[in-house]
Amino acid sequence: MYGRTRVDAALKASRPGEELLVKGWVRTVRVGKEVTFLSVNDGSCMAGLQVVVEPTLPNYQDVCRLGTGSAIAVRGTLRESPAAGQKYELAADELEIIGPADDSYPLQKKRHSFEYLRTITHLRPRTNTFGAVFRVRSSLAQAVHRFFAERGFLYVHTPIITANDCEGAGELFRVTTLDMAKPPLAAGEVDYSGDFFAQATGLTVSGQLEGELFAQAFSDIYTFGPTFRAENSNTARHAAEFWMIEPEMAFADLMADAALAEDFLRFLCRHVLDNCGEDMAFFNEQIDKGLLERVRAVADSSFAVMEYTEAITHLKKAKVPFAFPVEWGLDLQSEHERYITEKVVGGPVFLVNYPRDIKAFYMRQNDDGKTVAAMDLLVPKVGEIIGGSQREERLDLLLERMAETGINEEGLWWYLDSRRWGSCPHAGFGLGFERLLMYLTGMENIRDVIPFPRTPRHAEF
Ligand code: 4AD
Ligand code: MG
């Protein structure tokens, strides 16, 4: 491509005898008695291309001294390789050293811990594991768009700067141009009237509210964008900046919403099995031995549905000690979610109809007066991967709920308008893209599935 052949294409699509130009980074150098072998990787696939260099090359001595990490260009002839484990190798006719790397390069041969690699976030994409993670991430992002495009969903870009806290959890990062050293005050509080937007604004915690407006014009829509939460929980599954996919369907109830979520997750499972074989085999081998079996099972299964109330009954009967209390009306913690999906169900499960007091104001109230039409999809090893609901489309009930939860009507007048004219039952959900990646790769820390993680005290690179 653009004057060079990528390693994946060289290994798969080329024919022996073909003359190729390959560019990439040296992973290993083995100086033999007669020839020198280099393994070159360009990120297009996990495997490196073996390059065989004969001493007749004018810069042979420099090639023998090449360090791991050096950038090179090789022009040569592809031939069948006598070595085990690879079909082809490249016999070098010409080798240019583009950017050398000396032995201070941190990624020498030995295996590094993920903790250490997080301290060199800028270099870790050059390792096998992170190569695989980010190839799968890219492929899945494209699959997300394909899934919705095939079903006629409109792709809408919802704003990143917003004045509303959709989830009402007070986790908004502030966006301001006020002088932090001398903020204007009025009655002891910051006065935002002189700020850039003349009101308090922040980074979005969800595109849902704007998504709902578009669903009430285009029927079926989705957003897929960065999402920000200043939630100071330093866990392996929370990031301050993450990507969320949020579909919203008009004329849909909670069960239609769950059906979409199930189709979506199964589609994504099949996608990685069919399109990311080499990387998935690596994860299965190196990260999580049961991965492929689990992903295959999910691709073919139908998901269980359980009432929140029933989950509480199971948790109360559980013979394992939980760190957090279990009581009807309390939110479930990760340990509870994992117990339900791993021990009670043994696979993905939709928990539905949560107590209204632990859920956001926009969820539709059920007739029992106690619960709302919420659904969380729980999966083994990760816990909650999807959160969604049917929305409250009845203006009077929505206003009542906003008053109860202390949400200001004025700030959401535009949202309320959608309940004034042509209001209809509608539902949607949010899938955390990094949680999905953890689930499909077996990687256990959210910091290791996002290129440059933002977590409490970490935003350097
Ligand atoms: O359950 P949540 O908070 O739901 C919403 O934001 C709704 N507005 C979605 C909707 O109905 N349109 O978040 C949805 C998902 C979670 O299930 C989780 O996968 C992910 O977003 N998520 C996070 N991922 C990483 N880091 C965090 N701090 C996350 N918070 C939520
Ligand atoms: Mg949730």
Short description:
It contains 13 helices and 18 strands. With 461 residues, it is an alpha+beta fold.
Indicate the CATH topology of the largest domain.
BirA Bifunctional Protein, domain 2
What count of domains describes the coordinates? 2
CATH class call of the largest domain: Alpha Beta
Give the overall pLDDT as a whole number. Answer: 95
Explain what you see:
The chain has 461 residues and is α+β, with helices and mostly antiparallel strands. Helix content is 31%, strand content 25%. It is built from 13 helices and 18 strands. Strands 6-12-13-18-17-16-15-14 form an eight-stranded mixed sheet. Strands 1-2-3-5-4 form a five-stranded mixed β-barrel. Strands 7-11-8 form a three-stranded antiparallel sheet, with no helix packed on it. The protein binds 4-amino-1,4-dioxobutan-2-aminium adenosine-5'-monophosphate and magnesium ion. 4-amino-1,4-dioxobutan-2-aminium adenosine-5'-monophosphate (4AD) binds next to β13, β17, β18 and α13.
